[in-house]
Amino acid sequence: MASNKVVGILGGGQLGRMLAASASLLNIPVIILDGGPNTPAKQILASPYHTHIDGSFSDPIKIKELAAKVDVLTVEIEHVDVNALDEVESTFKNVQIHPAPGTIRIIQDKYSQKEHLARNNLPVSDFISVESSVEGISSAAATLGLPLMLKSRTLAYDGRGNYVLRDLAQSHDALAALGGRPLYAEKWVPFTQEIAVMVVRTTTGEVSSYPVVETVHKDNICHLVFAPLRTRDPGLIKRAQGIAEAAVQSLSGAGVFGVEMFLMENGTVYINEIAPRPHNSGHYTIEACETSQYENHLRAILSLPLGSTALKVPSAAMLNLIGASTSLSEIQQTTSVALSLPGTSVHLYGKSECRKGRKMGHITITAPNDAELRARLRPLLESLPNSTA
Ligand code: ATP
Ligand code: MG
Ligand code: MG
């Protein structure tokens, strides 16, 4: 056994499922806390090592019930009850929490996250807090211009919580769409590419970066990831990794962090946001890197030696399988194409209901070169609904 410490994970979605799968290879016992009856992670917790607690990751009583059974607590989602984690930290002296509750608190409010980054001299584009009213929105637009990216400060994921305001006449619509939640606004960033870096940090504070990847979003949801990022700018890779590492150094606690960034025409890099956990842009590491983000997250929080973050294939991509409707048939179609191609690995998350915009699985493609990667990717893209590939 790599470690006899028990790991508790708040959240049992696909990230929890892949963390648990990785833990099982090292015989690391895992207990998952999630409210759903048959969530992706619970489905694979069949060994005596692994178990789960039924309950919400935002329920303080359930969080304490989990804490009483584990040595290390971690999260696969940032929308957890941080006050409960603070209490665990002060009452369960033998339980370590990674990343630190304070880190999760800063990150789960996207406005306070941006303030934190700006305070630490990390590059972010202009942003301001916005009162949730038509007047509040028009005053933000007067300061930052149009289009304006309105964002919900809390509970955001997959772009749910974002509204692109192109005209002040849309203000009512924006308020209705964002459901009266606390808001802030970001200046529109005319990026040329979106990039991301996974950074892993040990309990003693050392950081190590995975390769810089290109992320392609469609309707605000991550659609494709290409690893490594191809660029003619010789300094870009080190620059982006340096910014991502500095951002992670500004926060406390161990584990992997996903740093999403915008790349501008002139080579400037801005941080979009940070995830304090394994991240969609790091799924490719399972097949394409020496050590996956999931395994390195576990190694980091358990104070085990980190594994290499290097790529072990010349070229890789990740395609998210996103629900097109309530039917699984579109996902099945792309899956069957993938099964007939070389170099592809299909990951299905076991979600019982398919919905438009829901992440149902992903496919990793690896290849000996970029041309072969594109050739393998093409039939997958062509199989997607409304494909224009
Ligand atoms: P995630 O699932 O990554 O947590 P999220 O709901 O937190 O998503 P963001 O990452 O804030 O949403 O935004 C989603 C996408 O919207 C970005 O990846 C980018 O494509 C676009 N976007 C976000 N902020 C801006 C901006 N200020 N200007 C232009 N485009 C933006
Ligand atoms: Mg986010
Ligand atoms: Mg994002």
The end-to-end span amounts to 47 Å
Spatial shape: globular
SSE arrangement, N to C: EHEEHEHEHHEHEEHEEEEEHEEHHEHEEH
Cofactors, ions, other ligands:
adenosine-5'-triphosphate, magnesium ion
Structural class: alpha+beta
Helix content: 25-40%
| Sheet of most strands | 9 strands, antiparallel
- Share of β-strand residues: 25-35%
Count of helical stretches: 12
CA radius of gyration is 21 Å
Stretches where pLDDT is under 50 for at least 5 consecutive residues are none
User: How many DSSP-defined strands?
Assistant: 18
Average predicted local confidence, pLDDT: 96
Pathway: Purine metabolism; IMP biosynthesis via de novo pathway; 5-amino-1-(5-phospho-D-ribosyl)imidazole-4-carboxylate from 5-amino-1-(5-phospho-D-ribosyl)imidazole (carboxylase route): step 1/1
GO biological process, one term: 'de novo' IMP biosynthetic process
Catalytic activity: 5-amino-1-(5-phospho-D-ribosyl)imidazole-4-carboxylate + H(+) = 5-amino-1-(5-phospho-beta-D-ribosyl)imidazole + CO2
Protein name: Phosphoribosylaminoimidazole carboxylase
